[in-house]
Every structure is written in structure tokens, then in C-alpha cells.
Amino acid sequence: GQNIDQPTEMTATEGAIVQINCTYQTSGFNGLFWYQQHAGEAPTFLSYNVLDGLEEKGRFSSFLSRSKGYSYLLLKELQMKDSASYLCAVKIGANNLFFGTGTRLTVIP
Amino acid sequence: DAGITQSPRHKVTETGTPVTLRCHQTENHRYMYWYRQDPGHGLRLIHYSYGVKDTDKGEVSDGYSVSRSKTEDFLLTLESATSSQTSVYFCAISESSGQLDTQYFGPGTRLTVL
Asked: Which of A104, A105, A101, A103 has its CA nearest to residue A2?
């Protein structure tokens, strides 16, 4: 079977840095995706890792360790608009994604 | 914006009635997907399509059928809706850029089965 674990909720302060962890045990691995989802809206693509290491995209970075089945999303200089759910998803096979249940991040002033 | 629309955006129906949700895309993407999203479960794949008339089951396909008679439209049908199918339904397409295939989501349909 497939399993992805993420913390259910996190709270962080505006301007700070937060790290959202994701661990996975899946049959097959062709990459790991992070999506952002604001309440009542569709998920939007943030980042993708297929090789070990860190991928940086502005204020957001994502890290992958395939040997440990582990990824994290790092958000720097937090803004109030970053309050959202962050979804970790593993690509299995050619095109299918298996999603975790998501981490709800609340940014406080 | 990957040019995906879903209709209807909201629907309330009664148990036992048939329901069809439509996903429409304007950019000729080959792969299309239907997911449902429920609290505590995240996004779960219902069915997907890899071309006209080519579809396959996902993780939670029981009680759902799909059809794709044109590249741009992917229909999800609940033959006889049940309260357990109350959910938010998202359609997605897969867009390729080099080695990367990324899924982009439509705005969602909130379905309530009474």
C-alpha cells in the first residue's frame, strides 16, 4: 500500500521560517510534489523533486532524500497570505499522484 | 491557468439520483483526472484518462463511471448518488515541460447528497 505522513496543523509567525515535513512509503517513486491549497480553492503547484537535494524557488524551497523517504517544504519570510494547506504528493508510475492529507499552516502576526 | 473549467460548481441532490460532473479543458492535454477531497483523506484519485475513450480506475472508483468522447471533455457520473459521495470533486490535467509532468487542477465542484 501507499502511505504519506504530514503534520496535520502548524502555526508560525509572520516573517519567520517554517519547515513542513513529509515522509512516505510507496510502491514506486517517480518524484515528489508540493501543492498549496487555500481554503475553498483548488490546489496549486509549488515544487517538484525527483533527485536528492534542495530545490529553491524564491521564498519556497523543497528538499528530498529518497533513501530516507523524506521531504520537506521550507517557507521563508512568512506572509499572512501563506496561510493555507500544503499537500505532499508522490508520483507513482507514469502519471499518477498519491497525496498526503495535507498540513494546515496558520501564519499569525 | 491551465484552461480548466468544471460544471456545475455546486450541486445538491438526493440519494439515488444520477449526477454527472463535467470537466472541460481548452489546451488539448492528453491526461485528465478526477479526484475527490474529503477531510482527513486528502485528494484521492477516482478515475483518469490517457486519451479519447481511454480510461482507467483510480483508488476510489466504486460507484463512479467516466467517459471521454472528446479530448476536451472528461465526464464523471455517479449512477445512483449516496451520502458517502458528498465531497468536493476536482478535475486535473497533466502538462509536460521537458521531463516534468505536472498536474494542474480545476476550480472544483462541491457536491452534497442528501
From this structure: A101
Distances (CA, A) of A57 to A82, A83, B18: 15, 18, 44
Backbone angles phi, psi at B14, to 5 degrees: -110, 155
Which residues does A12 contact at the CB level (< 8 Å), separation at least 6? A18, A75, A78, A105, A106, A107, A108
pLDDT in tens, A18-41: 999 999 999 889 999 999 999 999
Query: Hey, is A18 helix, strand or coil?
Result: strand
Neighbours of A45 (CB within 10 A): 17
A39 touches chain B (CB under 8 A): no
Rounded Cα distance, B112 and B100, in Å: 35
**What is the tens place of the pLDDT at every residue in A48-77?**
999 999 999 999 999 999 999 999 999 999
Tell me the C-alpha distance between B23 and B73, whole Å: 6
Angstrom distance (rounded) from CA B60 to CA B87: 13
Instruction: For residue A90, give Cα distances in angstroms to A6, B33, B42, B101.
Output: 13, 16, 13, 12
* Cα atoms in the 13 Å half-sphere on the side-chain side of B82: 4
Task: Compute CA A66 distance to the chain's CA centroid, rounded to the nearest angstrom.
Answer: 15
Which residues in chain A touch residue B106, judged by CB atoms under 8 angstroms apart?
A: 42
Nearest residue, CB atoms, A95 vs list B42, B99, B101:
B101
